[in-house]
Specification:
Shape: elongated
Strand order of the largest sheet: 1-2
Low-confidence stretches: none
Radius of gyration: 24 Å
Bound molecules: zinc ion
């Protein structure tokens, strides 16, 4: 999962029109309302697809039209229905069939489902927030509004949260919580439950992420070996370092460009390149490590 920015105040016209059309029936029938996929799916898809570069908002796999579904972050139906968000733009995410099926109607939150009537504790949201004149409070339907965030949702929202702060990819390709339980239990649980709810550690995803890590490692290792062999014949060391390593760094950096799959993996490799790739390749040889550090600094300087 990576961060994407969506303007919550600018839903697609057809989605907005469909919501206006269905509002009365929706508020009357609540979870029993017939949610029309031509509105929440067909109307939202043309804008969600380019926004996410055709990828799943949870697992980052590229989706064929057949695998593309529009997921309700907060479920429209089920044991706890957020029916009034069935056509809400900030509640709709492009998600592959596998992730959507895994998550189903689940939406665990940190606050209790029931609180005593006189308690000042926050409980799970059961109904939409209304304005004094009885109309729907449209602002309080946005996924980032305190009315909804007060529930302390566990599932990360790629348009509100910064997934990179919660999740990291291990060398094995497995996704894990970046935050330790002892440091912040709620944040730890957010990462952990997001992984488990959407099955982000399913075998194929681990394999794809491990593949990216291994190809980056191999690329840098082979280039390092080649460079060391030819080093003594080089007259201008900085320029031969540039020639040998800039192309490799560029390929690694490209792994987390928005249009790539599994960019969290590329991002983890790049932002920890010294601790991960360099250490693996150098195997405690300080001279090689210094040379790679030098090459990296040259590369970063060249980008400024
Ligand atoms: Zn997915």
């Amino acid at each position: 999962m990576r961060r994407f920015n969506k303007d919550f105040n600018a839903p697609p016209d057809a989605l907005q029109r469909g919501f206006e059309e269905k509002k009365e029936n929706l508020l009357e029938r609540k979870a029993e309302h017939y949610f029309e996929s031509r509105i929440y799916n067909t109307a939202a898809k043309p804008e969600l697809k380019p926004l996410y570069h055709g990828k799943c908002a949870y697992c980052e796999s590229m989706m064929s039209d057949d695998a593309f579904t529009v997921e309700h972050y907060r479920p429209k139906r089920g044991s706890h229905s957020y029916y009034w968000l069935g056509y809400e733009w900030s509640n709709l995410l492009p998600v592959c069939k596998k992730c959507n099926h895994a998550k189903g109607d689940r939406f665990p939150v940190g606050v209790p489902s029931r609180v005593l009537p006189d308690s000042d504790k926050k409980g799970r949201v059961k109904n939409p927030q209304l304005l004094p004149n009885g109309d729907l409070d449209i602002d309080a339907m946005k996924a980032d509004h305190p009315y909804l965030l007060g529930e302390k949702p566990y599932l990360l929202h790629p348009e509100i949260d910064e997934p990179e702060e919660f999740l990291y990819v291990k060398r094995t390709g497995e996704l894990a919580s970046k935050i330790e339980k002892e440091v912040n239990e709620y944040h730890y649980k957010r990462a952990d439950k997001t992984i488990n709810l959407t099955h982000l550690n399913r075998e194929i995803l681990i394999w794809k992420r491990r593949n990216i890590i291994e190809s980056c490692e191999n690329l840098l290792r082979n280039q390092t070996v080649r460079f060391l062999k030819e080093k003594d014949h080089q007259h201008n060391l900085p320029s031969s370092i540039r020639l040998a390593f800039f192309v490799v760094f560029e390929i690694i950096e490209n792994q987390f460009k928005d249009d790539q799959e599994y960019t969290l993996t590329g991002w983890c490799i790049w932002t920890n390149i010294k601790e991960t790739l360099f250490k693996t390749i150098c195997e405690n040889n300080q001279e090689i490590e210094q040379m790679l550090d030098y090459a990296l600094n040259l590369y970063i300087e060249s980008k400024c």
